[in-house]
Amino acid sequence: MNTKLTLTIEQSVIEKAKRYAKDKERSLSSLIENYLKALTKENNPSEIELTPIVKSLKGSFTAPKDFDYKKELSNRLSEKYL
Predict the structure, then answer these.
(1) Rounded-to-integer distance, Cα 32 and Cα 11, Å
(2) What is the distance between the alpha carbons of residues 29 and 5, in angstroms, rounded to a whole number?
(3) d(CA 2, CA 33)
(4) pLDDT 10s per residue in the chain (82 long)?
(5) Chain-centre distance of CA 29, in angstroms?
(6) Alpha-carbon distances, residue 44 vs 33, 40, 41, 47, 56 (angstroms)
């Protein structure tokens, strides 16, 4: 059953969200509903089923102990986009 909901949101955010929804050919209501569903989804990480490909790759790479993932990601993205 659908129920009406009133939200108070900055006008600029609403305008951007409406443009985004239009670009995606979706209604703003459906975008917000799906977002709230994703936020409230009860999902236990231990219950996530891995696909066979992911299972085969699991444990195939071991990073050095001093490996800084965030720094490496930042460097790679800077190289790519700057």
Answers:
(1) 16
(2) 10
(3) 10
(4) 889 999 999 999 999 999 999 999 999 999 999 999 888 877 666 667 888 998 888 888 888 889 898 999 999 999 988 8
(5) 18
(6) 21, 12, 9, 5, 22
pTM here? Answer: 0.49
Length of the chain (residues): 82
- CA distances to 37, 42, 51, 54 from 48, rounded to whole Å, are 17, 12, 10, 12
Write out the H or E segment, with its range, that includes residue 49.
none
CA atoms 23, 26, 27, 33: torsion sign: negative
Kind plus residue range of the DSSP H or E element containing 42 = none
